[in-house]
Amino acid sequence: MTFDPIAVRLEAARSVVRDAAQLALSLRPAPGGPSGTLKGRQDYLTEADGAVEALVSRRIQELFPEDGFQGEENGATRQGRFRWVVDPIDGTSNYARGRDRWCVSLGLLEGDEPVAGVIEAPALGEVFTASKGKGAFLNGKPIKASPITNTQEAMIEMGWSSRVPAETFNEKIAAIMALGAMPRSGGSGALALADVACGRSDGYLEIVIQLWDVAAALAILAESGAAVSPFLQTGGLTGGATILAAAPGVAKALSAAVNVEI
Predict the structure, then answer these.
(1) Domains, the chain, ordered by start
(2) Which of 13, 107, 239, 255 could, after both became Cys, cross-link 117 (CB 3.0–4.6 A)?
């Protein structure tokens, strides 16, 4: 039997993320006003962010001491051929208010190529997984991007960020609506991209997003057949960059409307 280092790592990642997600769930604030501190406008930091990242970092180091590791809170702490990238709580503004739409996201890169990913949303009971050449799955069942071809039937999500001028956000939303599409915004970039991968959504745009937000989703999107902008090649490896993911049948029209290459 041929040893598959990516398959071994994905199986381990599923277990690590499962435990991390349960830790986050146990620490989730009760519904109500936001709990935690603000790093910036609508950019929350909770006790769980640090605790979850520490758990994932420690477990990955124990399992794969030769691998690199990068987290949202502590940056790149180890280097290696394989690099794990974690967002301990994606959708922290939702999490801080006791809402359900948030997740733990753990992606695996080999060099600069996304090769596997796990996204678990424990409050929703959902786990997205994928590895290069092996397909994408939601709770163990194969997923594919939406077959939709008519933008007037499309549902498109756009992420909001305080780093993006209001005029830019409004311009892009207007362009989406001009296609006849229905706009959405759910507060979790990783889950929004996963929704494109499984066909719940027909597109997702965020003008400035970080690698830890999308590392796991990039592998899931690739295996689902979704069209994706060249995020890593346009600055996403080292800082904030734009991402556009879409169902193949509406990708060209959406790309032209929001002026983002796909």
Answers:
(1) 5-142 (3.30.540.10), 151-258 (3.40.190.80)
(2) 107
